[in-house]
Amino acid sequence: MTDGRQLGFDTLQIHAGAAPDPATGARQTPIYQTTAYVFRDADHAAALFNLQEVGYIYSRLTNPTVAALADRICALEGGAGAICCSSGHAAQIMALFPLMGPGLNIVASTRLYGGTITQFSQTIKRFGWSARFVDTEDAEAVKNAIDENTRAIFCESIANPGGYITDIPAMAAIADAAGIPLIVDNTSATPYLCNPIALGATLVVHSTTKYLTGNGTVTGGCVVDSGKFDWSASGKFPSLSQPEPAYHGLVFHEALGAMAYTFHSIAVGLRDLGMTMNPQGAHYTLMGIETLSLRMEKHVENARKVAEWLEQDPRVEAVTYAGLPSSPYYERVATICPKGAGALFTFAVKGGFDACVKLVDSLELFSHVANLGDARSLVIHSASTTHRQLTPEQLEAAGAAPDMVRVSIGIEDAEDLIADLDQALAKATA
Ligand SMILES: Cc1ncc(COP(=O)(O)O)c(C=O)c1O
């Protein structure tokens, strides 16, 4: 806008990254179902490949519909650049790719989503990378886990499944002191509830599959770079600070400054790993994101009502929702996610594992699925599903004990959700 106004979140979630289509005037962002883009001439092609001019070459790297989504998420997170990927898990690999190499490690929270713990404890080993898991409640342990080969700290803002809230400024201070980036998975909070970059994070990752799309239609992911990290301050990030052999010796940080990480992720990461988001998927997420703030308000309001009801029910042993004054993380909500503690939490049912399974089978409005962040309310018994690859110790640390059920509270009428839980708890504890 011409008067230099800082646009608000509700405006950005509709307008950022998109303008009427220059070719047709189409008001909504078209789905550019296109693979390649015609070069004006050989000089234009050379300028694009040399990263001297920004434009479209081939949709494995960039596509106009996907770029609109990346720009929108970037604006909502307050970043310098963003890269959309084929899934949240792809985004995590893409986030690490410019930083890592064989023999290098990350320090990761024990309270991450179970799939991420598996990705980090098993799969990344095949690249020669490794992860050291530490409870981020223990700042000393996080510091002590960092060594000269550590290249990032990785945590979630609001953790899946337990709704645990990470002290992001504390983690950012440790990362800063060690000269490494803090990466925050902001999937469960969304940029509406939490702004990791404003709290000191260097990189933010998302599974756009969840609240950003908001209707359970597509898988996708995104990496947002704050543009604030000095990649050349140490010799730790040679892909960005030294001639990159995978891109004819370009020194990304020198050539591209605050956009070095983003351009490396596109020009080398997407080019060679190919974890690209497709334009149709980007379109669904663009549609969803337009109503993000409205949905998150209702998700949070419903989650609070349901959590309060569950907490006073004698058939329920405990509720982990950080929005309840009884939560040890209640105070943290005000600084980390002031608009609310999200809509994802667990509760323990009296009767343990068997009662949990019966509860899940008895619910009628809640859908039993391995997903979260849908408009519909969802339920899962993490210990027997999403987290079943974890050891008993990992289950406990991740907040997915066998007597815990995870709920992702949707945007239906809270009274109907409570009635459904009431009848299912009656059956589960009969
Ligand atoms: C917090 C969190 N991060 C990342 C992922 C992975 O995302 P995706 O399923 O889109 O690969 C998930 C999936 O459940 C998640 O809950």
Structural write-up:
There is one protein chain. The chain has 430 residues and is of the alpha/beta class. It folds into two domains: 9-288, Type I PLP-dependent aspartate aminotransferase-like (Major domain) (Aspartate Aminotransferase, domain 2), CATH 3.40.640.10; 293-428, Aspartate Aminotransferase, domain 1 (Alpha-Beta Complex). It is built from 17 helices and twelve strands. The chain has helices at 9-15, 42-49, 64-77, 88-96, 114-121, 139-145, 168-178, 190-193, 238-241, 252-256, 260-273, 279-289, 292-311, 330-336, 352-362, 392-397, 414-428, and strands spanning 81-85, 105-109, 130-134, 150-156, 182-185, 203-207, 221-225, 316-319, 344-349, 367-368, 378-380, 404-408. The strands form two sheets. It has a seven-stranded mixed β-sheet, with helices on both faces. The structure holds pyridoxal-5'-phosphate.
